[in-house]
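Progress report, Aim 2. The chain analyzed during this reporting quarter is listed below.
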Amino acid sequence: MTNKIADLINDKMRQDYATSSGVAIHARMQHIFFDDKGVPLSDDDIVAYISKNPELVEYMGPLSRTEVPIAGYVNGRFISRRIDRLYVNHNTKAVVVIDYKTDVDKERFYNKYIEQLTEYHRLLSDVYPDYTIACKILWINDFILENVI
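Predicted structure tokens for the chain:
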């Protein structure tokens, strides 16, 4: 019995830490921007990681917005969410959703994340019917950008 209680407490502590860490990194990521010449305009240590990936620099530039609200019906169910980062290029007719994830164990909630990004994709298809829409996960622990949809 004691081990079960200890396990529950440890799980709760890990969950609380993950939640607070996720909230903190999301707040920092909202302020990451690069100007149209690729010059960083924000948080130095995060910018250092992002600067190593030209694709990320583009997605953090002037064609992107953070915490973009989106709502609508998917499979008859109303959803209302905020997209962590939305990149829209009207010249190339490209939309890219970047969802930040702080998990160390990338597989634990992976199916849930795919479902979330699939919902974003469906909603954005209505908003941008003639655009190519891609959804990606930015794994914050190692700054790997994973193509999902």
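Residues 2-147 form one domain. The chain has one domain: 2-147. These observations will guide the mutagenesis work planned for the next reporting period.
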